[in-house]
What does this fold into?
Amino acid sequence: MKRSIGAKTLAFPTPTWVVGTYDINGDPNAMTVAWAGLCCSVPPCISVSLRKATYSYSGIIENKAFTVSIPSEDHVKETDYFGLVSGRDENKFKATGLTPVRSELVAAPFVGEFPLVLECKLLHTLEIGLHILFVGEIVDIKAEESALDENGDPDIEKVRPIIYGTGSRSYYGIGRDLGKAFSIGKER
Amino acid sequence: MKRSIGAKTLAFPTPTWVVGTYDINGDPNAMTVAWAGLCCSVPPCISVSLRKATYSYSGIIENKAFTVSIPSEDHVKETDYFGLVSGRDENKFKATGLTPVRSELVAAPFVGEFPLVLECKLLHTLEIGLHILFVGEIVDIKAEESALDENGDPDIEKVRPIIYGTGSRSYYGIGRDLGKAFSIGKER
It folds into this structure.
């Protein structure tokens, strides 16, 4: 039996990603987001939604670029910190000891210690309401060697990404392998 | 050490959601998506990206509405099937035995057996490239009683959503609780 719980911003799963930007002074900033997702195959694109009030918002507008750094479980505390304070008040890289690495392709920094990084140039800006949706074209992905499988592709079980649980506001790891996509549906 | 792996549509984690639509004849259709995410808090919105070639695309355009049904691990095979075939060729609800339930709020059906359902009216359409991004305003969420916590909120551990692993194209469950958001970052 289903019950109405009202109009909420709630869905499972949502990602836990860190958006990297340079501010107007060229200082690196980073911000955790969960309102985000892949959104196009050709060109490869990802969307992240930010409030205008965030410091990162102005960084994206200024540079027409951002990165998405995907943390592993090992950095869940630093990742949470990136969502707790504003880059207006604190240099979050200095505070965490994590390394801002300048992208050679777009005007944005990424988190050196995170296993998987998407470098994006701003393609579209869509003002929805409290949040503005930015579509970034993924111009390259950088991956740690240790996060790659035998074919040289990023392996989700080696990256060990973080899931954000809306509602309870908890982080989760990924769990067991449930089967191959475009395959197990044939077995019904 | 990081290695460039090129411009790909790849990120971890991505969701596994089923978009429900009515076709031009009023028949229910459903399609699995992973290029999707929450995208605004006020109004509460979710985005799903579809190719124009899909049957569901025309269903959204026709009705200016869609639902997002969130499957649990129990229905991973049916969920994969929803992404394997086109509603042009087959009635996927009949084929799976799952129940299309008419939303009372928007012109779209949801999957009766899935624990969590978002009813959405189309707010924005953004043509990116191969994929078109649809922003839907979440007008209500319906949840199974069995998926709610003691406060009446959806519990991710009871919903047991499915994560899609891009690259390897595998499904995963959620794993262990890594801590509270907006909290564990203070402990660094």
Notes: The CA atoms of residues 92 and 172 of chain A lie 23 Å apart.
